[in-house]
Design a protein that fits this description.
The complex is a heterodimer of chains A (334) and B (455).
Chain A: E1 3-15, E2 25-31, E3 37-40, H1 50-62, E4 69-72, H2 90-117, E5 124-126, E6 131-134, E7 137-143, H3 144-153, E8 160-165, E9 185-197, E10 203-213, H4 220-239, E11 270-276, H5 298-310, H6 321-333
Parallel strand pairs in A: 3-4, 10-11
Antiparallel strand pairs in A: 1-9, 2-3, 2-8, 5-6, 6-7, 9-10
Helix pairs in contact in A: 1-2, 2-3, 4-5
Chain B: E1 2-3, H1 28-32, E2 48-54, E3 60-66, H2 68-72, E4 76-80, E5 89-90, E6 103-104, E7 110-111, E8 117-123, H3 126-133, E9 137-142, H4 149-153, E10 177-181, H5 184-190, E11 193-200, E12 213-218, E13 224-228, H6 233-244, E14 251-254, H7 270-281, E15 285-288, H8 291-296, E16 304-312, E17 318-330, H9 336-346, E18 356-364, H10 379-395, H11 400-407, H12 426-436, H13 443-446
Parallel strand pairs in B: 2-15, 13-14, 17-18
Antiparallel strand pairs in B: 2-8, 3-7, 3-9, 4-8, 5-6, 10-18, 11-16, 12-13, 12-15, 16-17
The chains are: A alpha+beta (334), B alpha+beta (455).
Amino acid sequence: MAIRRGRGVAAINYPTGMNLGGDPTQALVHSTPTGNFMVTLSSVDLGQGMKQIMAQICAETIGVPTDRVVIDTADTDTGPHCMGTFASRGTHRAGNAVIQAAKEARQVMLEVAAEELEVNASDLETDGQGNIQVKGAPQRSISIFDVALSAHFKRGRSISGRGMFLIPRSYPEKETGAMKPSTCYAHACTVAEVEVDDETGEVTVLTVKNVFEIGRALNPKMVEQQLVGGSWMGISHALYETTEPYYPSRDHAGTDFNQYLMPGPGDLAETEIIVLERPSADGPFGAKGPGEMCANPQIPAVANAVFDAVGVRIDTLPITPERILRALKAQAAS
Amino acid sequence: MELRKDYFADVRKDGLHEIGQGRPRLDSPGHVTGKTPYFADRNFPGMLHLKMVRSPHHHARIRSIDTSEAEKHPGVVRVLTAKDVPHNVYTILILIQIGPEDETVLADGKVRWKGEAVVAVLAETERAAQEAAAKVKVDYEVLPAVFDMEEALKPGAPLVNEYHGQNYYLYDSGECRKVRFGDVEAGFAQADHILEQSYQSSPIEHAPTETTGCVVAPEGNDRFTCYTNTQAMFFTLDNTSIILQMPGSKLHFVGGTVGGGFGGKVDVIVEPIAILAAKLTGRPVCFIYSREEEMQISSPRAAEKVIIKDGVMKDGRIVARKVTGYTDAGAYSRHSPYGAQKGAAHYPGPYTIPNVWIDTYCVYTNRTPSSAMRGFGVTIGDFALEVQMDKLARLIGMDPLEFRFINAYRDGDMKAHRQPTEGAALIECMQEASRAANWPVAEKYMAMSSYRKGA
């Protein structure tokens, strides 16, 4: 009887957005009288930080600092339609809608600034700090604060924009299944290292090294949180979780966190996250949706590592000590 | 986290002002100081509490329901049954034309899973609602139930859901979603080795910190405001409008920060009945799942069975792959027909294989309906695919990572569902993993690229 060590690898891809498309999201953007920008949506922030990302996307597009943007979302009386926050679609779909709306608002803003500066709008640029300046002559500039005041009280212009993003729905061909499920895919490769106690069947995940290709890390700190959380969930799916431990039997169904097993802080592996960025052709600044993808590769990587450690295949999830011991017993008997 | 900017640097414009910056979240101070409001923080004078009477049986006919004792219980204001729900038989994906309507808001004549909602009790306190719910008498005639997908698909199996007429979802392509590419039998005939393996998973709970729920307030202008933690505002509003036969203009949904979704909050379950209760009583209503309801009543990730048959050459090329996937929908569709379809689109994984055959089934059984969960349609498929890849590599005596390089999809490769590959990055992920994990592979694999010359 011994503690045995093994490692396993898995490589995967994952589609961004609702499968087969047909999932619209709208956004509206308008400026306040003093040049702050409101983004109105009905998308839901699930705790992953969607509001922050939409603010950064709007800010980058209009050319103002992120703290000049306010997100008003998840209210059906004010926000235009969003299909919902699921299917790794929030950043991609809502982000594109925000870019379109923000571009339209930016154009009006530049037109008003052009009138104030008596130049052509096409000769203007934003400095990212809250000012608009003539390209090549930054001393000729006006603050966005003053532009918004002028638009409201002097020129009667609405600095606002509408955005809508829809990937037309694809219908699978009945006999061949020819279809367009998604426009872009995120990627991952995970290597997991485990220890398996062949006396108790217990698995300890030592390290998980994840490489994720996500199109673009719009906010690296936030995507790190999502990717680390996903990696933990993957380990949890591999080794612990089920509402029906003896599926298809309905017996022994857990009803609280005492009965439903999840890893505690002490059960979590040393987790490494490496991010690559191959921008997608239709993503906001190239972003793809990594929200679901990041919890998938750990499951097979752990399963393969268990085999590498003790030489038995557990092809039924979760990989419990009971299943490992039964397999070891069967292996010894044969 | 390490951001490896050296990959794909030629196709990326860096140096933006706001994008790519790790700005602190504007809402995190509220979260960590307990100031962020959640839907359940709403409290209205005179608010009623809704508790469900649930089926104790997996499959049963309802002979009769007697609510008289419950109605007399102190604090009880109203008891609702199927006849109170304007459009009681519904299905949520009807909004994108995926029918048929197959589920009841409150059971009508039959229950199809243990835990199904039968009677809704509204009372002044949570305790009174709970006590009264225990006094509702339902006379059941227990019917045979089926839990195993293979059993459910056999002729003569108990019929789970009459609205489907058979224990599988009928796609326009027939009993399953199909993908056919190349000639899979010819591929097997040419292969040096054949490996057929079966993989299985069990239902999994989303386990959000915040359980599913909503608080509804009737407004003076004949409208209803529903404070909810749904993941999809208009999807829920529009389905509620159908179920209650109420114009959408009468409904105002307010969401906000959700305490964890993971796909568990895209079914439309609590809102329609709570709004109906508010309408019929003229009082604010809250309906919040207990942890037990969250774990055993709200939809889990579907259990799946995946059978993969591969033909592989000694040199490492996979020449044929046949996948048969079964998704256990439980008693009702919810999002499961979509999930099984997504599986068909995902197989054979991120590999270029010339001959592919895929069938994915959405199967009905007498268990808690499954639905959306982070990655559904793909997560369990990836478990099966990637364990299968490991087995194939060992079968032909090849390093499992190198084996994946040989088969990895690259730009321009035709996928089984007949879309050319664009924007591939699997090879680069594996190269970086090889370095990071100190898992060396041959130099020729480290020199590969997802780009194709001229592509």
